[in-house]
Amino acid sequence: MTADLTIDLDRLMGRIAALGRIGALPGGGCKRLALTPEDAEGRALVTGWFRDLGLDVHTDVIGNCWAIRPGRSSGAPVVMGSHIDTVATGGLYDGVLGVLGGLEVIESAIQAGIETERPLAVAFFTNEEGARFAPDMMGSGVAQGGLDLDEILAKVGIDGVSVAEALAAIGAAGSHPVGALAPDTYLELHIEQGPVLEAEGLAIGVVTGVQGISWTEITVEGQAAHAGTTPMALRHDAGLVAARIAAEARAIADAFGPPQVATVGRIALTPDLVNVIPERAVLTVDLRNADEARLQAAEARLFAQAEAFAAAEGCRLSRRTLARFEPVAFDATLVDAVEAGAAALGLTHRRMPSGAGHDAQMFAPRCPSAMIFVPSQDGISHNIREYTAPEEIAPGVRLLAQVALARAGRVDQKGQTE
Amino acid sequence: MTADLTIDLDRLMGRIAALGRIGALPGGGCKRLALTPEDAEGRALVTGWFRDLGLDVHTDVIGNCWAIRPGRSSGAPVVMGSHIDTVATGGLYDGVLGVLGGLEVIESAIQAGIETERPLAVAFFTNEEGARFAPDMMGSGVAQGGLDLDEILAKVGIDGVSVAEALAAIGAAGSHPVGALAPDTYLELHIEQGPVLEAEGLAIGVVTGVQGISWTEITVEGQAAHAGTTPMALRHDAGLVAARIAAEARAIADAFGPPQVATVGRIALTPDLVNVIPERAVLTVDLRNADEARLQAAEARLFAQAEAFAAAEGCRLSRRTLARFEPVAFDATLVDAVEAGAAALGLTHRRMPSGAGHDAQMFAPRCPSAMIFVPSQDGISHNIREYTAPEEIAPGVRLLAQVALARAGRVDQKGQTE
Question: How far does the CA of residue B246 sit from the closest CA of chain A (Å)?
């Protein structure tokens, strides 16, 4: 194999820290919601670094930005990317690592005099988090044709501003049309955002795909009544039905086994008084599985049981889908290459699905795509306590370099294409 | 038996409607929180009616008001009473019926030339609802020595105003000391506020006592984590523990059987997001039983199971008591008299405990006390839809008259004491 590329970990950590100061929160972490002034400042900082390296910087109409280092041949680039927007209580690593890690790979390659046959690119995509505008993975979804541009531009965010207005307000939209970024290969380095790698003491997650996601909002309508004077037999307790659904969600996850997960994150009762039987309960159920048939089976059991609980209590039940993504399987050859690269670098690793959504899943239908995970301390993300140590980041970036350069056709100073 | 007293149902319903116009809400019902300007207006209207009848009107330092029609002999009065304050979404009948029903008994007796050996009185008590100031049953509790006057005067309401300030603001405090109202007998006519009488097609509830009430707030502390990336085995889901406690509360009520009731009226999750495992859940459990030992057994089972659910999920649990009242048994002889009176008047009836708290329970330790229930449409109360038809009210007032006049020693025009 070719020698491991030497990366400058201090330079990378310095950039992560510098970007983290934009939108920094008092207790740590940062808030850099998509297309806000903070996002604009972050974009300026990162594209400045792109330009400092002499990369060709392009921005498309939805604000996706990519920077290309030309290859010896023309053709589609090998793209390393992710996002730089955060949730309202975000950390410094989610998304940022994939972008600045990709930048570090290119800068290290330039400094080492390593060229590639195909162009090599680093990119960030607009509004991956979905914390200001729904849906999430917006920029990558539009770029790859999964989402319709005009529909997306009209979406209104939590602050009443549309995507089109927000793009204009910070001048984030470029002139490149949707689809201008057509990668040969898409690679995304990311923190795991879960506890598995840390719990198992492993350096690398070889991501095999993204779990299918099913978000359902369930509304139960019962009848408010006095908690003291209403006999149990005459009650229509919407809160009880919600509680039974929440317990059933856990029972489904237990019965199906990994990788099935199930979460009830929200429960709202009306009127929410200590001595009044709830007349209304609204709850959300988040179901995920890497296998579409299993995910559908989990949904079917949950919905059937929810209906049965409601009927037994004399309540009405309705539900609406908040989000539904089928599982995505990453390109088998590319996943094998990531795994082989980890082994070649002597890094402990395991295959695993991603439980969270990522830009990579939007690219997967169009080009070979894969992801590399590094550990998250305590499995925490979307939280100011999000943390991955520099010595845990380094192996991920080395592996990203290994796979990206190989896919792009690495040519070392001696002129030999690998 | 003596002839049934003829009451003027139109006059009574007219007064209920007139009082209901004070603090009337747009959709019906009314809001007449304790010691507000609306309450002051209501007090003025009702005491005006008292004075129109030539009754001796007295007000004590906490704003309780009673009006006495002297008996042939001196001695403690037979008191008919309740309250005229309402909750924020109150109806026209809760409390008001007991006061204006008592007034109707006295006015009808005067018009029929019926006298009594003991004085006969009608009264209303300050802040029974507890909707502005905690605790509820405040005025009757202070009057009967169950609550300390100075402590109560210092209580601050939901609007930041103390009881003492609110009393002063509307001039509701009188000169009579605490304990000046010492009834020989206390009788309270009230709407059931529950569905039992309507469901069983009965006219009268012969109230045997008030259920013991146990309100507990339970806080579960787990750990927030990503709903997609956190395996089920590594979760500490505070929301799941709350859901299991809610289901257990119902299981306890089912296992114990009537009159045990159990209600989880509030559940609040933090951070309350669809894709984040709840790190914190706060819920309330309302347990009631007419038997103190059974109520303690219900509490013990609930608390033990809640601890077990928390431990199994790796969560911490804490709880605090929001309210705790032991069951109150009304005077057996007086309850028998109410039941016999209902039978004598040919009214369908059943014995039942009160699931809600009432002023009568504050009097019960000091003098023979009892209550009469009339049906509530759909069991609804503390709601602008609260309703009891005039033809359902009339039997309650007739029975109140029957029992009150008998206890006071009815003397008809012919001069014969019953």
Answer: 6
Q: Which of A228, A242, A265 sits opposite B275 (nearest CB)?
A: A265
Q: State how far residue A272 is from chain B, nearest Cα, in angstroms.
A: 5
The predicted model gives B9-13 an average pLDDT of 98
Residue B3 in domain = no
Closest-CA residue of chain B to A242: B243
**Contact of B350 with B55, CB cutoff 8 Å:** no
Sign of the four-CA dihedral A92, A96, A102, A106: negative
Distance from CA of A36 to the nearest CA of B (A): 22
B82 and B227 part of one domain: no
Beta-carbon separation of B265 and A247 below 8 A:
no
Do B252 and B122 lie in a common domain?
no
User: Binning pLDDT at 50, 70 and 90, where does residue B158 land?
Assistant: confident
What pLDDT score was predicted for residue A289? 96
Domain boundary among B325, B356, B390: B325
CATH at B90: 3.40.630.10
- The ipTM is 0.84
Boundaries of domain holding A300? 212-325
DSSP helix/strand/coil, A194 = coil
With contacts defined as CB-CB under 8 Å, which chain B residues touch A260?
232
A195 and A321 both lie in a single domain = no
| Span B95-140, pLDDT tens digits | 999 999 999 999 999 999 999 999 999 999 999 998 899 889 999 9
User: CA angle, B137 as apex, B134 and B138 as ends, to 5°?
Assistant: 60
- Taking CB atoms and an 8 Å limit, are B229 and A193 in contact across chains? yes
* Same structural domain, A154 and A220: no
Domain-located, residue A416 = no
Structural domain contains residue B126: yes
For chain B, the domain total comes to 2
Cβ–Cβ below 8 Å for B267 and A269: yes
Query: Does residue A321 share a domain with residue A335?
Result: no
Beta strand extents in B78-148 (DSSP E only): 78-82, 115-116, 120-124
Contacts of A253 in chain B (CB under 8 A): 232
Q: CB-based contacts of A312: which residues, under 8 Å, 6+ apart?
A: none
Q: Has residue A224 got a pLDDT over 80?
A: yes
Give the pLDDT confidence score for residue A134 in this predicted structure.
85
List, for residues A252-283, the tens digit of each pLDDT value: 999 999 999 999 999 999 989 888 899 999 99
Domain termination residue (choose one: A306, A325, A344): A325
Same domain, A175 and A27: yes
Looking at the DSSP assignment, which residues form a beta bridge with residue B252?
none
- Give A352 to chain B, closest Cα distance, Å: 10
In a domain, A268, yes or no: yes
Contact A281, A220 (CB under 8 A): yes
C-alpha to C-alpha distances, B196 to A183, B204, B374, nearest whole angstrom: 71, 10, 10
Q: Are residues A171 and A25 in the same domain?
A: yes
Interface test with A, best of B190, B207, B229 (most A CBs within 10 A): B229
Query: Are A251 and A338 part of one and the same domain?
Result: no
Whether B179 and B240 have beta carbons less than 8 Å apart is answered as no
